[in-house]
Amino acid sequence: MIQIATFHSPFTSKFGIPKQSGLAPSLHGHIVFTPPYRNADSLRGIEEFDYLWLIWEFSANRHRASSPVVRPPLLGGNVKMGVFATRSPFRPNNIGLSCVRLSRVEWDTPQGPVIHVEGADLMDGTPIYDIKPYVVYADCHPEARSGFVDRRPIKRLHVENIDILKDVFSPDELSALHDALALDPRPHYQDDPMRVYGMPFGGHDVHFRVADGILTVLPG
Fold it and tell me: Which ranges does the record mark as transmembrane (predicted)?
């Protein structure tokens, strides 16, 4: 496949990235095309759509998956499911699929047209292989079953003390960081209330601790 663009995000590592797109709707990112595809004609009509599908690569995975089963974090990391019954990043072909909200297109930049999106679950520097519009009549199935996901509603932590970072991040960045932290970035098998975690975000290290459903942001 040919890389057509690169995704840019506040997340410079896998740690802390939302497990699915749309879970942190205030999280902003942008798409910069590679030189052969910096053509405004290829985006003609795109602003008429509210959402886009991104097809991309799990580029941070160092080893190709070899097992037919994986352990979904949503199930606590202890239950094995078939890889094709999950959205695990560890797949025979390390291809990701994300639905993101189209915020705006910046048409005239030194890098050609730049697409700004919200709610993405991609790491900074992720290669993008294709972009397709989200079409309601074909893509929306509100009555569909979602397997084990239906039995595991998304839980969010209460985030405290995030205002100590207001001199480091803009209000929009703080909102996005709050959304990401509320999703509990920790590995699901770790639950030590005294452990301090560090998460790179927007060029800074964010430290926090989690106890009794409360995530407390700590001074750097």
Answer: none
For residue 179, give Cα distances in angstroms to 42, 169, 215. 33, 14, 12
Torsion sign over Cα 114, 120, 122, 123:
positive
CA distance linking residue 199 with residue 6, whole number of Å: 22
CB atoms within 10 A of CB 181: 25
pTM (2 decimals)?
A: 0.91
Tokens of 19: 């497990």
- E strand or H helix that includes residue 180: helix 171-182
Query: How far, in Å, CA of 17 to CA of 184, rounded?
Result: 10
Sheet hosting strand 204-211, strand order edge to edge? 158-160, 214-218, 204-211, 197-201
Q: Under DSSP, is residue 129 helix (H, G, I), strand (E, B) or coil?
A: strand
pLDDT digits (tens, 9 = 90+) for 89-134: 888 999 999 999 999 999 999 999 999 999 999 999 999 999 999 9
